[in-house]
Design a protein that fits this description.
Layout: E1 2-10, E2 17-19, E3 34-36, E4 41-46, E5 52-57, E6 65-73, E7 77-84, E8 92-99, E9 107-116, E10 119-122, E11 125-129, E12 136-142, E13 148-153, E14 156-163, E15 171-178
Antiparallel strand pairs: 1-2, 1-5, 1-7, 3-6, 4-5, 6-15, 7-12, 8-9, 8-15, 9-10, 10-11, 12-13, 13-14
C-alpha cells in the first residue's frame, strides 16, 4: 500500500495530526510514525500527491506496520488519507483504534478497513469496488462510543452508518499494515 496525505480532524482540535511527508528523504522512515517492519519495508517514496508518500511493502510472511499515535479523542473525528493498493495478492488493512486507558496504553480495534480482491471492505464486508494501482482519497468519520461510522471515497459517501468492529469510547491511533 502506498499512502499519501493523511490528516485527522475533530471539532475541538483541528490539528490532531496532518502529515503530507513532503520534504522527507526518499528511502527513509516517515518522521513521527511508529514502525514495525518485520521482513517488510516502510519507506518514504515519490508522492501520490505532493512530492512524497509512505510505502508499506510486505516482502515475506510478516506484515510491516506504520502507526500514528495521538491523545485519545472522544468527540467526532475524521481521518482522511490517500491510498493506492499496488499488488493483487496482498491485502491492505487500515485500523482506527481506541486506547484502553489513555495515551501510551494498549490499543483495541474500533474500525477495520481492508482492500483486497477488488473491494474496499468494512472488516470483510464489501463496500465498494476499486482498481489496483489507482489512488483513492479515503475518509472515515466517527463519533467515539458510536457503533457506526461513515466512509467516503473520493469525496463520495459510499458507506453510511457502517457497523464498527467493536465500540470504543475514544480514538487514539491509526495503523496501516498488510496481511
Amino acid at each position: 500500500i502506498c499512502c499519501g496525505i493523511m490528516k485527522a480532524i475533530s471539532c475541538f482540535d483541528p490539528s490532531i495530526f496532518d502529515d503530507d511527508f513532503n520534504g522527507q528523504g526518499l528511502g527513509s522512515n516517515p518522521i513521527g510514525w511508529s514502525l514495525s517492519e518485520g521482513n517488510g519495508a516502510v519507506n518514504i517514496v515519490s508522492g501520490l500527491e505532493g512530492d512524497r508518500a509512505v510505502n508499506v511493502a510486505r516482502l515475506s510472511s510478516q506484515n510491516p506496520t506504520a502507526n500514528h499515535y495521538f491523545s485519545p479523542q472522544d468527540e467526532k473525528i475524521s481521518f482522511e488519507f490517500l491510498a493506492r493498493h499496488n499488488s493483487g495478492s496482498g491485502r491492505v488493512r487500515i485500523e482506527v483504534e481506541g486506547a484502553t486507558s489513555g495515551f501510551g496504553a494498549s490499543f483495541e480495534d474500533y474500525i477495520i478497513l481492508k482492500m483486497y480482491n477488488g473491494w474496499i471492505r468494512n472488516n470483510n464486508a464489501q463496500v465498494m469496488q476499486y482498481s489496483l494501482n489507482t489512488i483513492y482519497r479515503i475518509k472515515v468519520e466517527v463519533l467515539p462510543n458510536a457503533n457506526t461510522f461513515d466512509l467516503y471515497v473520493d469525496e463520495q459517501l459510499v458507506g453510511n452508518d457502517l457497523p464498527v468492529y467493536s465500540t470504543r469510547n475514544n480514538v487514539a491511533r491509526i495503523s496501516f499494515t498488510t496481511e
